[in-house]
Amino acid sequence: MKTTKGMLFLALTLLAVGGSIFAGGKKQDAPAPGASQFTSKELNITYTGTPQPAEKEYIIDVYVKNFEKQYGVKVNVDFVTQQDGIRKTESEQSTKNIISDVIYADTAWMAPYVNGAWVEDLTGLIHKGITLTGMYDESTNKGSARLFVPNTFDVYVLAANVDALKYLPQGLTRQSVVDGITWEQYAEWAVNIAKGEGKGKTMLPANSQGSQLLYPLGGMGLAYGAKFPEFASDGFKKALDIVTAIARGNGFYSEQAQYSAPTDPMINGDVWLTFAHMSPIGVAYNAAPNQWVIGAAPKGSKGAGSISGAWCWGVSKSAPHADLAAAWIDYVTTPQVNYELCTNFGGMLSPINEVAPLLGSGDVIMAAGSKMLATTIVSGVPSVQYKDWNAVKLLYHDAFNQVLNTKQVPNDAFLRDLDAKCAALKN
Hints:
Elements lengths: L2 H14 L25 E7 L4 H19 L2 E7 L1 H14 L6 E5 L4 H5 L21 H4 E2 L2 E2 L2 E6 L1 E6 L12 H6 L3 H15 L4 E2 L10 H10 L10 H15 L14 H5 L5 E5 H10 L4 E4 L3 E2 L2 E5 L1 E7 L6 H11 L2 H10 L19 H10 L2 E4 L9 H18 L5 H13 L3
Parallel strand pairs: 1-2, 1-3, 8-9, 12-14
Antiparallel strand pairs: 3-13, 4-5, 6-13, 7-9, 7-10, 11-12
């Protein structure tokens, strides 16, 4: 997209909504068609989360730099944790001292932004001619307003070190792993590996800080008919049967509680089998493609299941550089720009339908995730329905740790108590 073309589209879009950039925000004149410069000369981005070093390098050196060159402006990026991003935005909005123009947030942490009315309606500012998935509308939209634009998303996939293939349960092959084994077979495989190697080499991300554990456990529950989040159902108890089988066979990696992603243990050889987000798996895969087999989510009695979250862009209410913020939304929803970001983030999925034709033979992780979408029970992240999503996450740790400590599925009273605590967290 050339600068002049992008400016023309932006100008026409802004004029279509009454000559101002955001209907409910700070009024600014739309740039004239064909204008070579914006009124604003810099854009301030609050980027929440903790990207891995290679991802952060790409964001600064390519993703942001290309926008700066395209529009002749300066972009400042403030990398903060998700909790600090919420605190920062709340402070700016409550004091009316708005610094952040654009905010990058995960659907799991989106509720405060949406419920607090801290962001603008982006309807009409998305790149012309693209189609966005509706999977995350429950989190990103409110009524008729689109408050966040999904930028990347992922599902959970299986990753297995090729050295683990010799421990596959009888009758299974490498292709079986690619196509999708059952959870019962996964558990048997994990135990076989532990017996053969003398230690557990199967991992769930069990660190309670920045916890991700509820997502693989939630996906396992979906595979057996559970809802998400949910604890006392027969479906979730069947999922915990799988966890119990692995725990009884000492199949889990002993240091898994130190990690919220399996990337490093995969790379250093400590973990041979995992079910995790495409992106962290993709980083390990790309470091040694010949060492890993990427497979679909394992199946339960109801099929395969996966929780799927999205990273999204929003614009601060009354953003001081609203013209550039609108240009940024157009830029990040350009198919080629989005495709390159997804590939550089380990192979995340694009929420833009028009990115699919851009995939090549080397996009193994993206292809595996895309293939799963047609046959997998997928749930989004209903964080906006809860007062404290992190507290919901920790309930899954309670269930998981109870299994690890007792080597059995928690009793009904224990699980009903978790359900009650979860219900108490609802808005």
